[in-house]
Amino acid sequence: MDSDTENRREENGDAPRHTLIGKCVMKTLSHPLDYARFLVQVGHEPMAPYRYRSIFGEERLFLPNLVVYAKYIYSVDGFKGMYVGLAPKIIGICIEHFSSSLMSDYIQIDKNLNVDNTDSDLEVWKKCAIKTSKEMICTATSIILSHPLHIVSMRMMAQFVGYEHRYTLVLQSISLITREEGVNGLFTAIIPRLLAGLGTVILVNVAKQAFSRYLFDPSPMTLNIADFAASYLANAATYSFNVVTACTAINNCGLAAGMPPDMPVFGNWLECMKYLYRCDQLNRGSSTWFRRVPQTQSKLLKLL
């Protein structure tokens, strides 16, 4: 019995480590696409759109997909260049993982909280609210602690636009930001990133609970479908905050990507969001494969 208990403890201790390794591996593999998506989010479009006629005869303008964009980055900076900004991202992921795990243990989140079918709606939603609020605390903690690394990663990638080399190493970048902008510079765009993270937690938990409670039978397969659907809807609903985070993080920091004429200077993240909304650019980069040119730009391009 003692050996079995020790084995279970070792397995439970290895699980978070394996989860972290899996996250780091996946982020490393997907970084070229994330890099391309970030450049799209900040409005850098070095490749011309192309015309495509639909089956209904309507002509539309499309931009090259993110895979083509990643190939373009490779053609400019080579293989190593596709992984600019990866180091601070991985460090940030580690900080997020450990801070979230420690906070989860501290506030005692029950990840296996089961809702009894005999529970009333009030009891079900009360349990959901408690679980959601605890997850929000963990998410907020991990985002705040990892945000300086997130800023460094984004600014490293943004240098692609102007071929700059201001941000090269992690510690050097943190020192540069602190010297030029103060400690507040390390937490630029923290509010839209928090809104994206916390909004996702709320929407995922509420949608998952609603799907499993009212739409699907509570079987393992349907619960997995509910999880996927809830995550997809939540990420789609909060994606615009990711675009605002990317633009605000590099705005007016001395990089060409965040300065006129590439980007106006914003007073705060709300001004950035209003500007992107007026330009119909709040969802740019949301699609990996099919990237339509917004109507406002499409009309101008047709006149050229």
Write the layout of secondary structure elements.
Elements: H1 2-41, E1 50-53, E2 59-63, H2 66-81, H3 86-107, H4 121-162, H5 170-181, H6 190-215, H7 220-250, H8 269-278, E3 291-292, H9 295-303
Antiparallel strand pairs: 1-2, 2-3
Helix pairs in contact: 1-2, 1-3, 3-4, 4-6, 6-7, 7-8
Question: Would you give an account of this structure?
Answer:
This protein is mainly α. The protein is 68% helix and 4% strand. It contains nine helices and three strands. The chain has helices at 2-41, 66-81, 86-107, 121-162, 170-181, 190-215, 220-250, 269-278, 295-303, and strands spanning 50-53, 59-63, 291-292. The chain has a three-stranded antiparallel beta sheet with strand order 1-2-3, with no helix packed on it. α1 packs across α2. The longest helix is centred in the middle third of the chain and has 42 residues, at 121-162. The radius of gyration is 22 Å and the shape is globular. Residues 1-13 and 298-304 have low confidence and may be disordered.
What does this entry show, briefly?
68% of the residues lie in helices and 4% in strands. The protein is built from nine helices and three strands. The chain is globular, with a radius of gyration of 22 Å.
Query: Which descriptor suits the 3D outline?
Result: globular
Low-confidence stretches: 1-13, 298-304
Query: Could you describe the largest sheet, including whether it forms a barrel?
Result: 3 strands, antiparallel
Q: What is the tally of beta strands?
A: 3
Average per-residue pLDDT, rounded, comes to 87
Radius of gyration: 22 Å
How many angstroms does the end-to-end distance come to? 78 Å
Helix content: 55-70%
Topology as H/E string?
A: HEEHHHHHHHEH
Trace the largest sheet across and list its strands.
1-2-3
Instruction: Tell me the strand percentage band.
Output: under 5%
Counting DSSP H or I runs of 4 or more residues, the number of helices is: 9
Structural classification: mainly alpha
